[in-house]
Amino acid sequence: SKKGFIFDLDGVIVDTAKYHFLAWRKLAKSLDIDFSETQNEQLKGVSRVKSLEKILSWGNKSISEDKFMELMAKKNDDYLSFIDKMDTQEILPDIPKVLNFIKDKKQGIALGSASKNARTILKKVKLKKSFETIVDGNDVSKAKPDPEVFLIAAKQLNIAPEHCIVFEDSVAGVKAANTANMISIGIGEISILGEADYVFKDFTQISEEFLTELITN
Ligand code: G6P
Ligand code: MG
Fold first, then answer.
1. What is the SS3 assignment for 102?
2. Verdict on whether the full-model pTM lies above 0.90
3. pLDDT tens digit string along 92-113?
4. Centroid of ligand 2 to alpha carbon of 26 (angstroms)
5. Active site annotation includes 87
6. Is 116 in the pocket of ligand 1 (CB under 6 A)?
7. CA 10 to ligand 2 centroid distance, Å
8. Three-state secondary structure call for residue 5
9. Both ends of the chain: CA-CA distance in Å?
């Protein structure tokens, strides 16, 4: 039967993970909080609110609700200043090829992202039309590792979760896909994404044979 391919956005379709990191690091510095690359892995796939909560807890800081809102807005302004300069060159290698291959095979294609900026970014890199459905941070109430975002995507594709395949670069996202009973494909380091069913360094390592197997099995 038809399969549903669900793509995370940041760090999978485009290399925006580095921009999130830069913006969070700047904000953390302003609060005298330092965080490592390892801690940054824990922010990947995690909503804006949850990310700020984590950073504050690492720095043992508590702030007022107003200050919290102010910092979130500031982080997003910084992040958007990077996004504003994006173009199609920031699409990660072989993404268009893989999207076209899956489309040619008449399979479902969805975006499943925690980001509230997902639509803006897809427009910037001219990939919005590649997705049958887009589920992002504006559509969910529970952040990854909760499976909500992927379950909504499956529902909108009209494909059962067990027939869906998720591409994720984050630990939280791999967990969400596994909990949703979907096949999880980690994009990145196996030492970080070991819980995924498969891990590839990037899309150049994913062969058409492998995609065909996912479609036919
Ligand atoms: C993605 C990124 C996270 C980011 C989250 C919310 O999951 O991996 O780093 O915090 O989206 O993004 P937003 O653009 O709404 O702040
Ligand atoms: Mg991601």
1. helix
2. yes
3. 999 999 999 999 999 999 999 9
4. 20
5. no
6. yes
7. 4
8. strand
9. 9
